[in-house]
Amino acid sequence: MPKKILLVEDEKHIARFVELELQHEGYEVTVAFEGREGLSLATTEQFDVLLLDVMLPGINGIEICRRVRTQSQVPIILITARDAVMDRVAGLDAGADDYIVKPFAIEELLARIRTILRRATPESANSESLRLRDIEIDVAAYEVFVQGNKLDLTKTEYDLLKLLIEHKNRVCTREHILTSVWGYDTDIETNVVDVYIRHLRTKLPGDMNAYIETVRGVGYVMRE
Questions:
Q1: What angle do helix axes 191-203 and 155-166 make, rounded to 10 degrees?
Q2: Which of 40, 135, 140, 190 gets the most CB atoms within 10 Å of its CB?
Q3: According to the model, what pLDDT value does residue 83 have?
């Protein structure tokens, strides 16, 4: 069954070009040209990936992302003409899994979609569990439990936590985290890692946020 992608883009020539390229790759594509329509589709229909332009009439892409995140962990890629760090951080803070800056090569967008779909699909053959203190990861189910209670994480947050636990007691550099979690040669800056570490610390209950230690100037580590 083809993967379903929602593209919300108000520049119709760009939307048509991306739609045709995605269809050529075998994806089923739904297009919306306005923010409110895009939000309605994203919250009432099932999609495998959302591609959201940031600058949209009605409701902008960051706000759509924020609202979708209240009810779904569907992978979200933001498309933005803004290359400012704060714009990218705002999108990630809203729950986006990735972003791409206009103008972009269609090959890069396709690679990011393939990567985010791989990350969103658990490997059913791998039934192991990972543990660190009160945290348990059911790898096959793609779920995280803290003291027996399920932790609600985005795909990227899950991948980051899993990486840190897999490398427990060893420091992961920001560069290693970018390569391992995002999965390709990326232009994303290393401060994005700091954003997601902050997300994880916020979601871990109580003093458990201290489980993720900062190694100044290097990266992060979780210890037994």
A1: 90
A2: 135
A3: 64
